[in-house]
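FAQ: What does the model actually see?

It sees only this:
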Amino acid sequence: MGNLRAHRGRLAPALMLTAFAVLAVVAVFALSAGPASAYTGYQHGGAVCANCHTVSTAVPPTNADCATCHTGFTTAHAVAGVASKCWTCHTPGQDMDTVKTNAAVGGCGAASASGSCHGSAGHIGSTPTTCLTCHSVTASTTDPNGSAHHKTAVTDVQVKALLTIKTSAASIKLKKTVKVSGLAKSVQPGYVVTVLVQKKGKTGKWAKVTAKPAKWTQATSSWTFTYKPTKKGAYRFQASTPVVAGTNGNTVAIPAKVTGYKNLTVK
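And it is asked to produce this:
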């Protein structure tokens, strides 16, 4: 009986040591599993920890670290005037295809409509679904493509010119009126759309009849022009806009734009 008690007394410390050893192993696995799974979730483009965490894994990467792979992007972008980091807007490894769209849901339009970045209404002449009509989006991980979202300020944002033209009819009778219209995007008040009217002569050459400014409505980005021919024959119309200086702090001008011709037969 005494020997049994002594044997049990010797077993208790041994069992305790075994239990502590098992707990230690479990703890090691638990600690290693956390960072491993977190790393997998944020891993992208074949990057390894050292690509972004240049000091240690406890220190978040800097914009300069991101720019080593994502070349061509600025590293001092500000959102609403407040300095931000790349991950202020982006989650590492996220699929950007749906973000780089003109859709009202899930793309540029969603950000505009929510007011989180661009205000609830945007600027005059814009709508939540027309961002890409004038503004560029990032083309790839190394090409910002003039995207306003990767510029240090609005002073270096390139705005695309937009100008379209159409006629209300391809053929009309003499003394009737034709309506020429289209779209012209600009945030500049006093934007001018000029319509050139030409008539084909007997030799087949086109000669200028007149060139007058159209009526441009900034709120809808549309323009209209009416013309009443005085002679029968073949006519054609062409719209153009001049270079427009940058506005709202943007020093980059909107380039000039010229449309193709729209033909009209007057009987």
